[in-house]
Amino acid sequence: MIDKAMYVAMTGASATMKAQASVSHNLANANTVGFQATLAGTVAAPVAGEGHGSRVAVSHRTLGVSAAPGAINATGNTLDVALDQERWLAVQTPGGETAYTRAGDLKLSPNGLLTTASGLSVLDQQGAPIAIPPHESLHIGGDGTISIVPLGEPEANIGEAGRLQVVAARTDELVRGDDGLMRLPPGAEPLPPAAGKVLTAGALEQSNADPTASLVSMIQLSRQFEMQVRVLQSGDENAQASNSLLSSR
């Protein structure tokens, strides 16, 4: 019984440390534009092997990504976009793959490429990086259309410079990678561009991570970890006491 208790406490402590890491990651991104909190928890994990299946360990498991909307803050910046719910902006990863994000704080590189704040190229509806020519003014429409007045031209000469590739998908239909970007699961069909209004220009969606709830969760997990360590210490003390009794006979 002692070894069973110690094993359960050990796996519980390990799972608690991993849960603490997930909560810490959410808290660290409480001010990250478009960030969606990781949902994680602990589950019972029966121990496989020979003999009667009476042992159950504890395992940490990532349960998904929170689809709760973040607060929308108006910025007035022409390159800031807040995506509508279940809408994702297509970007190109350094490896040339297509991934998706809700971070709408876009930038223009010195050579005119439209990128995310982290430097990833934003894709158009044909899947190519968007390049913006020199311009007097720029406007992003609710459907993702980018309109500009070319440099040196009058305001009446408005032309289309491209259209953001924004797709429709539920959060649970995508998988988040280690780089924080969302991707389609293996074998899934490519997502078509979403029609109609897909975003609000001049605004940003803030992180949906709740700092207060994260801090409370960190305290709870810390206390839980301390209790599990105490169980391990008690089990070790009981084992030593048992060995002493056996050796004295």
Automatic annotation (TrEMBL):
Domain Flagellar basal-body/hook protein C-terminal: 201-245
Domain of life: Bacteria
Entry's localization field: Bacterial flagellum basal body
Name of a matching Pfam family: Flg_bb_rod
GO BP term (any one): bacterial-type flagellum-dependent swarming motility
Keywords: Bacterial flagellum, Cell projection, Cilium, Flagellum
GO cellular component: bacterial-type flagellum basal body, rod
Domain named Flagellar basal body rod protein N-terminal: residues: 6-36
First and last residue of the signal peptide: none
SUPFAM superfamilies: Flagellar hook protein flgE
Every Flagellar hook protein FlgE/F/G-like D1 domain range: 88-147
Complex formation: The basal body constitutes a major portion of the flagellar organelle and consists of five rings (E,L,P,S, and M) mounted on a central rod. The rod consists of about 26 subunits of FlgG in the distal portion, and FlgB, FlgC and FlgF are thought to build up the proximal portion of the rod with about 6 subunits each.
Family to which the UniProt record says this protein belongs: Belongs to the flagella basal body rod proteins family.
Protein name from the UniProt record: Flagellar basal-body rod protein FlgF
